[in-house]
Structures are given as structure tokens and as C-alpha cells.
Write a sequence for this structure.
């Protein structure tokens, strides 16, 4: 193990890594959990803040950090640490790239059924808990995570869970770190259940002139016997599309496809096999957090039964406000809408704030996933503090009393 | 607050009929489903049976004033001593909070109180086209609150996941008496996953007073197959082959010959008496899919030396095949006066070796061990048969249990797959976790319950109080890092 002081001394200045325009004083590249822990302990001692960075695909998430001293790259913690195809489990280094992992699993006809960019890292995916459309059919990483290894500012590395698919030996620590945005510790490795790849998959896309027609089509699918992997309604040209991803056993697919076609109506388009997964890659890239110009990405959620009202309300309100929303991705079964706002450059900031207020009022939760730092300053991107904030603050206090990890970026500025 | 003042205050909240305080009434609550001698227990000061969240919160506040610990309790079917008090205190039994408040057909969710009985929930929703997937074998008696606290599993968790995968949000009374909701949308509320933390917390983080649960659509078609094998090794091989073929059955259960000997004469489920092991495989889904999978499974079993494969699609036939499995525990009475049901997990590929080792351990300790288990998950349930009136039997059984755990841990397994730690297995926690791992768990608990008032004495090894955890943690840090200033 390298000495933490030496690691820090070797930190590189890398302007390519930044969070909300802030470039960290240096980027360090630890290669083991012990090194991360020692580094964090040192940061704690010297009151440095530390920001874990993986593939850099979701750095936009969170409140604007008050300062950024050290960025801890997890790319040195990569690799498939263990993979037992016959047990359908694997252990992955936090820095392993999602695309690389999928390639290894695919050799054995298996997969982690998550929609994520190939360059995202496993640690980042666990920490941000962002799941794509397939959450509907396959759940999120929360449902697949069976074990975890985390380095803390106390200088320790701890484990939770294990390599078995069912485990109630003590509290469910993996779930606590999932979605904690690296504020309790830096994930060193994580273990997952994997699933067999569907024998075949097909996507059926229906197009509709009006949003309510597209939503009605989605509703018909939800109420049918078909259990899609994903079901999404989105803006498509001047109209709306309803996309249904189905996969599974050869024996069922043809029948299911016919049924979906009938339920969607209007002569839907069929996208088969590898082209189907390519189509969904394109789909999720529209809601990528790496925004290139002054735009904002918001995620609204409600209970699914209320999603039509919320979606129509949101689209109606935005058009009334005259704010362009080129991307609207609705997940009816998940009760979620992701919207990209591109307000006119003149008073864009004010228009963004107005839009956020209006949209928040329609949802149970409204999170600003990404926006220019100037727009994020002064708001809590996670929305109003939940009633459980005292417990969350107490949790942070237990794991990171010095406020080393991603200070200020999480819910309630934790 | 003296005892009688305490009882008066509790009665003021819950009414005369909502508070038990006589010795004979309290003694009933000294037990849960676990075997005598396997868990530690003490007489509570009082047992309360609230009917509302407000009453629960008020009891917690009174307990805090009186400086007494609180233990939540459901049906008391737990097998690790979770629902019994360890050093007195107040039990809050949630069995009278048993309303199904709302069933949402469109979203497939139900909002329920914690005392709702697991099977009653599914029986209520099945006619509406959906069911509550976690199905512990105790489902006729156990409560949703207990399922949440133990993160319970069951045969169908192979495909559908354990309780945690089916809980969308919880209303909880925190140890300080505050009432909070932890989430309600499938996408989850922003912030730490407190719902996920509370599920499986063995009643130590908060008292669940409402749960928003996910319901699963009834499958269009269900097939149950019984495959008989000459021995457990061939049966285990078939399990591995089914999984390796990319098939994910709804459940995949295994029973050994001793179990068959107990259940078949009692329930006539049609298990071949001479089989060394039987597999019960259930597949569900769309009609075409189930039919195709059934054929594949038959082929795999036959190639793995199954002597017989029988299939049932009609409900009555399916129920009969299941009956033997579901009544396995009850049938054990035919073989022996008492049994100790163990619960451990190993990686699936370690099943054959583990089954062999369990047999050896039985021989070493001179006890009969029947095996009924969730083979698809690698979740073992060795049933150790004994007679508690025979001197030395309890000790032998506990000794064998420890050996089984030793083995399972040594092959990469875990202490418990579904029954929890409680007091039963707290002494084993250091076999799988370091002091630092336990300190992290203690940190999580401190966030919810800094005073350690809720269900104390569970999960952590004995003598592992908050103060010690902190000291241990500090010591670990000091040993690990002689931090050099930059
Ligand atoms: C014959 C038999 C078969 C079983 N089979 C299975 C099985 O297949 N799978 C399985 O997983 N388990 C099984 N169990 C174990 C047990 O039934 C489960 O753990 C069940 O979930 C416990 O529910 P309960 O209502 O009886 O809870 P209790 O035993 O009353 O309590 C269990 C724990 O939950 C806590 N608790 C209860 N209610 C609440 C609440 N509202 N809020 C917070 N904490 C609470 C208690 O403090 C305690 O720690 C079996 C038990 C028996 C006796």
C-alpha cells in the first residue's frame, strides 16, 4: 500500500475533471480500498474535501459543492474481481466500466439489465442510483446488489452483504450506500446478481400525434398480460412515440409482439434483436446528464397512477411558458418523467427557476439532475428537505463527521 | 416512573384491553418461534396492543420517559428471537393494527397496517389479479410488519425477490416518537434509502406502522413439476443445470429422503418414498413460455438421472404437490418430538458439497438432520431432530448448528438467508464481519436510535454496546494508520 501523503503529493491537476465548473486541486489515483481509506483519513485530518470520480458521466448530479480539494479517481479500482456464471453472481471493482463488464457477462449469456452509458463505472452507477427504462421489467441495481466494500473517512474499509443471492446476516448495508452519492464512503467494489440474457428481444414503437393518445396506448400495455422490459412515451418529432421493449423466451415473443402491435395501433415499427438494444442506447443518450449547452434536465416522479396527469400538465405548462423542452421521456410504469429544458438565452436562468417551480408543483419529487452551476446555486436540486432529513443528517454524521465526502452536494446540502 | 404509574399511563393510551401486565399474560410473550435454548429471553414489563400510529408513538414516548427499551412484535413466528425482550421493557404487539387500507389495482400496490397477515393480503388481492410475492412458509400466521423487519423470503423469492424488493415505502415511528414516511413512489424519494435500511433491521430502527407494498400480477399460467432423484447430489446437479440453462423458475425447492418419509405418509402428496431427493420446480408466466420451459426442465432433469418427472398445471394437482413441501415442518412431529430449523446460505455451486457435509455433521453429533430447502437460492434449511427432554440433545443440536454455520461460512456463504440474526446468531456475527464492518452497522443504527432503546440486544454480538463500538472503531483507526502530516 502506498502512503497517503505520497499519493496526495502525486495528485495531478486535471482540468478535464470538474464539478459544476470547479476544478479540484488535484486528482489522486488509488489502487486499493486501503489506499482510498488512508487518503480519506488524511483528508479528514486536514479538512480537505474529497470527491469520488468514476467515469465522469454523472458528475452533474447534486448541489454545487462549496469547494473541491481532492478528486479521488476510482479508475484504478477496476476489473472483474470474481465471476461465477453458474452461480449468477459477480464481484466488480468500483472503477470497472459498465460496457466492459457487460461484454464479459455476455460471453456467458448473462447481463446486468441496466440502461447506462458504457463509460459509466460500477461505483458511479451504485452511488447515483440512476436507472433507466428497464427498471420497469428488471428493477434497478438496488435489486441486484448483494454485497459491497466501502472506504470511509475514518480510515477503515468495511464490507456489507456477500456473494450469495439471499442474505439477512445483519443490516442491509449495500442498500444504504446505493444512491448515497458517495457521501458515506467511497465504494471500492460491489457484488451483483446477474441475469440470463433474454433469448430474444424486440422493440415495438408506435407513433401518435398527441401526447394523450401515446399515454393511452401505454396504459393499454400496462393493463395487458404483457410484462415489458421497458415502456416509454417520448417526444418524437412533432408527435409522440410509445416504445415497448419485450424480451424473453423464444416461445412467447412472436405472440407478445403481435399483441403489443395490436395494443399500440397505427401500424407500429418493429425493431428486432441487436437493433433493439441499439435503439434504447440512443433513447437513453437523450437524457444523458452531460449537457453541452445551457439546458437543464429535470426528473419528476409521482405514483404511476398519476403520471398521465403530471406528464400532460408538465408539457402544457412548458408550452404556455414558452420554454422549449426538446426531450420529454415518460416512464408510465415508474411514475417518472425526465424533461430537458432549453429556455431562451435571454433571462434563461429566471425562466428555468419559474419552470422548476411549476413542474415541482405537479410532482411528488422533482430533482434537477443537471443544470449550469449558476442555475443550481441558491436552490437545493433535490427539492424540499424530506421529513426524514434529521435521520439522514445523523447518518452522515456517523460516517463522515468531518464532512469530507462530497460535502454539500446531497439532499438538504448534506 | 414506578411500575404501576407506567401501567396506568399505558392503559390511558391503549385502554384496559390494550395492555397486558399480569405475570401469566406476560409469559406468553416470552417466546417466539425459536427453539428453547437457542435464544435469550426475559419477561417484559408490559405488553401493549395499540390500534393506531398515534398510540404507537405515545407508547414509545412513555417508554423513553420511563427509560425502558421497546420491542416491536408481530405474530411472534420469528425464528431468531427478534420479538422477545432480552432484558425486560415494553413489547409493542402490532397484531391489532391489521387493516388493509387501500388496494390500488392500477399501480398494483397495497397500503397496509403492519399486523396484516401475509397470506390474508394475498388472498384479498388474488381475485383482483395480483399477489404479495414474499411467501414465507409461516405465511398463514406471520405479519407484514414481521416480514419487513426480517426481510423475509420464501419459495417464490427465487424469481420475485425477497421482501425488500416489494416494499415501496414505510410509515415508521422512530425511537424518539416522531412519525415519518420513507418514500412512496417506485422511483424512490431523494436521499438515503431509508426504506431499504429499515427492511431487515429486525425492529431496531423504527416501528413500522404502515407499509406501501408492491403487488405482483397473477401469472397467466403456472406449472409445478416434481422430479425424483436417486440422491441429493443428482438433484443438486439438476438445480445447477436448470440455472445454467438460463431458466429462472418461480421456485426451485429440494427435499431429502428423511423429509419425504415424514410428509408422504401424512399428506399423500405423491412423493416417491424411495427417492433420495425430490425437486419441486414451479414455473410461471405466459402460457407458451411455461409450456416450453416445462419441457426444457423435464429434459434437464432426465439427463441428470431423474427417475421420474411429473407435471401439474391444474390448481388442485399443483396444490397437492406443494402440500408436502409446505407441511414439511408440521410433519416432522411424526419423526421426532422437536426440531431445530436452521437457515444458512451458500453459493449455489456449493450445494452438493454442503449437503454432503451436513450429513456428515449429523453423523458426528449423532442427530438426524432432514433437509428441506430453497435450492435455487442456495438457501439451506437443515432440520435437526431432537427430543428436548433427553439430556444433552439440545446441546448436541446447537453444536451441530454451529458446525453447519462454520462450513457454510468457509465456502463463502452467509449466516442467515431469511430468518435473521436476533439473539440466536449474534454470537456468530464476527465469523463473517470484522469489527469495522460491525461498527458501520452500529453507525447506521445510531443514526436511527442513538440511545439504543429499540429492540436492544439483537444482531450485535453480546456486550457490543454503542460505547464499545465507538472505542473499537477508534482503536482500529489508530492501529491502521499512523498518519503522517503532509
Ligand atoms: C414454521 C415456520 C416457517 C417459517 N418459514 C419462513 C420462511 O419460509 N421464510 C422466512 O423468511 N421466514 C420464515 N419463518 C420465520 C418468520 O415467520 C418470519 O421471520 C416472519 O416474517 C416473522 O413475522 P412475525 O409477524 O411473526 O414477526 P415476529 O416474530 O413477531 O417479529 C420478528 C421481528 O420483527 C420485528 N417486528 C415485528 N413487527 C414489526 C413492526 N411492525 N415494526 C418493526 N419491527 C417489527 C420484531 O421486533 C422482531 O425482531 C418461519 C417461521 C416458522 C415458525
Amino acid at each position: 500500500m502506498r502512503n497517503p501523503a505520497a499519493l496526495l503529493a502525486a495528485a495531478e491537476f486535471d482540468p478535464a475533471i470538474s464539478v459544476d465548473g470547479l476544478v479540484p486541486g488535484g486528482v489522486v489515483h488509488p489502487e486499493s480500498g486501503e489506499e482510498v481509506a488512508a487518503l480519506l483519513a488524511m483528508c479528514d485530518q486536514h479538512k480537505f474535501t474529497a470527491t469520488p470520480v468514476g467515469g465522469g458521466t454523472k458528475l452533474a448530479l447534486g448541489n454545487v459543492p462549496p469547494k473541491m480539494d481532492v478528486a479521488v479517481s476510482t479508475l484504478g479500482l477496476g476489473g472483474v474481481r470474481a465471476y461465477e456464471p453458474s452461480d449468477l453472481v459477480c464481484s466488480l471493482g468500483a472503477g470497472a466500466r459498465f460496457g466492459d463488464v457487460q461484454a464479459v457477462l455476455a460471453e456467458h449469456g448473462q447481463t446486468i439489465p441496466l440502461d447506462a452509458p458504457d463509460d459509466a463505472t460500477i461505483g458511479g452507477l451504485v452511488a447515483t442510483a440512476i436507472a433507466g427504462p428497464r427498471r420497469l421489467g428488471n428493477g434497478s441495481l438496488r435489486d441486484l446488489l448483494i454485497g459491497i466494500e466501502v472506504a470511509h473517512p475514518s480510515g477503515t474499509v468495511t464490507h456489507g452483504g456477500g456473494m450469495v443471492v439471499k442474505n439477512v446476516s445483519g443490516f442491509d448495508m449495500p442498500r444504504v450506500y446505493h444512491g448515497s452519492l458517495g457521501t458515506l464512503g467511497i465504494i471500492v467494489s460491489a457484488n451483483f446478481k446477474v441475469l440470463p440474457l433474454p433469448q430474444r428481444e424486440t422493440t415495438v414503437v408506435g407513433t401518435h400525434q398527441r401526447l394523450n393518445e401515446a399515454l393511452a396506448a401505454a396504459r393499454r400495455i400496462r393493463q395487458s398480460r404483457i410484462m415489458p422490459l421497458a415502456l416509454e412515451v417520448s417526444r418524437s418529432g412533432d408527435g409522440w412515440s410509445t416504445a415497448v421493449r419485450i424480451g424473453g423466451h423464444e416461445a412467447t415473443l412472436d405472440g407478445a409482439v403481435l399483441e403489443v402491435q395490436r395494443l399500440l395501433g397505427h401500424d407500429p415499427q418493429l425493431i428486432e434483436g441487436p437493433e433493439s438494444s441499439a435503439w434504447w442506447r440512443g433513447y437513453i443518450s437523450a437524457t444523458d446528464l452531460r449537457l453541452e449547452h445551457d439546458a437543464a434536465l429535470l426528473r419528476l416522479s409521482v405514483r404511476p397512477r398519476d403520471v398521465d396527469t403530471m406528464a400532460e400538465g408538465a408539457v402544457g405548462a412548458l408550452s404556455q411558458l414558452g420554454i422549449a423542452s426538446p426531450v420529454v421521456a415518460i416512464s408510465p410504469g415508474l411514475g417518472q418523467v425526465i424533461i430537458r429544458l432549453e429556455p431562451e438565452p435571454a433571462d434563461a436562468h429566471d425562466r428555468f427557476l419559474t419552470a422548476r417551480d411549476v413542474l415541482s408543483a405537479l410532482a411528488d419529487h422533482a430533482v434537477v439532475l443537471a443544470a449550469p452551476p449558476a442555475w443550481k446555486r441558491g436552490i437545493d436540486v433535490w427539492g424540499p428537505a424530506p421529513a426524514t432529513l434529521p435521520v439522514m443528517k445523523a447518518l452522515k454524521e456517523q460516517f463522515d463527521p468531518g464532512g469530507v465526502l462530497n460535502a454539500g452536494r446531497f439532499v438538504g446540502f448534506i | 416512573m414506578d411500575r404501576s404509574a407506567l401501567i396506568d399511563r399505558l392503559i390511558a393510551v391503549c385502554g384496559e384491553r390494550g395492555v397486558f401486565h399480569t405475570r401469566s399474560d406476560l409469559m406468553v410473550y416470552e417466546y417466539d418461534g425459536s427453539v428453547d435454548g437457542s435464544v435469550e429471553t426475559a419477561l417484559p414489563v408490559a405488553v401493549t396492543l395499540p390500534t393506531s400510529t398515534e398510540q404507537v408513538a405515545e407508547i414509545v414516548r412513555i417508554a423513553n420517559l420511563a427509560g425502558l427499551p421497546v420491542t416491536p412484535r408481530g405474530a411472534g413466528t420469528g425464528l431468531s428471537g427478534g420479538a422477545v425482550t432480552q432484558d425486560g421493557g415494553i413489547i409493542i404487539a402490532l397484531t391489532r393494527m391489521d387493516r388493509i387500507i387501500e388496494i390500488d389495482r392500477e399501480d398494483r400496490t397495497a397500503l397496509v397496517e403492519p399486523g396484516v397477515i401475509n397470506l390474508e393480503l394475498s388472498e384479498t388481492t388474488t381475485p383482483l389479479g395480483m399477489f404479495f410475492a414474499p411467501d414465507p412458509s409461516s405465511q398463514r400466521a406471520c405479519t407484514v410488519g414481521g416480514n419487513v423487519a426480517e426481510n423475509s423470503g420464501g419459495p417464490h423469492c427465487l424469481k420475485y425477490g425477497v421482501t425488500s424488493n416489494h416494499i415501496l415505502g414505510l410509515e415508521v415511528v422512530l425511537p424518539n416518537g416522531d412519525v415519518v414516511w420513507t418514500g412512496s413512489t417506485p422511483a424512490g424519494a431523494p436521499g438515503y434509502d431509508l426504506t431499504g435500511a429499515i427492511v431487515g433491521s429486525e425492529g431496531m430502527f423504527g416501528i413500522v406502522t404502515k407499509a406501501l407494498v408492491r403487488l405482483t400480477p397473477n401469472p397467466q399460467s403456472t406449472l409445478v413439476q416434481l422430479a425424483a432423484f436417486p440422491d441429493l447430489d443428482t438433484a443438486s446437479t439438476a438445480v445447477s443445470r436448470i440455472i445454467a440453462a438460463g431458466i429462472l423458475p418461480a421456485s426451485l425447492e429440494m427435499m431429502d429422503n428423511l423429509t419425504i418419509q415424514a410428509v408422504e405418509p401424512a399428506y399423500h402428496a405423491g412423493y416417491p418414498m424411495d427417492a433420495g431427493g425430490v425437486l419441486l420446480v414451479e414455473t410461471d408466466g405466459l402460457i407458451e413460455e411455461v409450456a416450453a420451459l416445462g419441457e426444457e426442465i423435464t429434459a434437464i432433469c432426465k439427463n441428470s438421472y431423474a427417475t421420474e418427472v411429473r407435471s401439474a398445471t391444474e390448481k388442485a394437482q399443483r396444490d397437492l404437490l406443494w402440500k408436502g413441501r409446505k407441511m414439511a415442518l408440521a410433519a416432522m412431529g411424526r419423526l421426532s418430538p422437536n426440531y431445530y430449523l436452521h437457515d444458512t446460505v451458500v453459493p449455489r455451486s456449493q450445494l452438493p458439497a454442503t449437503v454432503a457435509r451436513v450429513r456428515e455433521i449429523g453423523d458426528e453429533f449423532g442427530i438426524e438432520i432432514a433437509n428441506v430447502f430453497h435450492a435455487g437460492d442456495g438457501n439451506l434449511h437443515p432440520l435437526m431432530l431432537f427430543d428436548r427432554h433427553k439430556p444433552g440433545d439440545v446441546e448436541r443440536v446447537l453444536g451441530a448448528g454451529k458446525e453447519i454455520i462454520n462450513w457454510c461460512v468457509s465456502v463463502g456463504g452467509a449466516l442467515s438467508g431469511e430468518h435473521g440474526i436476533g439473539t440466536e446468531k449474534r454470537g456468530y456475527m464476527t465469523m463473517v464481519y470484522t469489527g469495522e464492518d460491525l461498527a458501520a452497522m452500529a453507525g447506521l443504527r445510531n443514526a436511527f436510535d442513538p440511545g439504543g432503546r429499540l429492540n436492544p440486544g439483537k444482531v450485535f454480538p453480546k456486550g457490543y454496546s454503542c460505547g464499545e463500538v465507538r472505542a473499537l472503531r477508534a482503536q482500529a483507526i489508530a492501529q491502521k494508520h499512523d498518519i503522517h502530516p503532509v
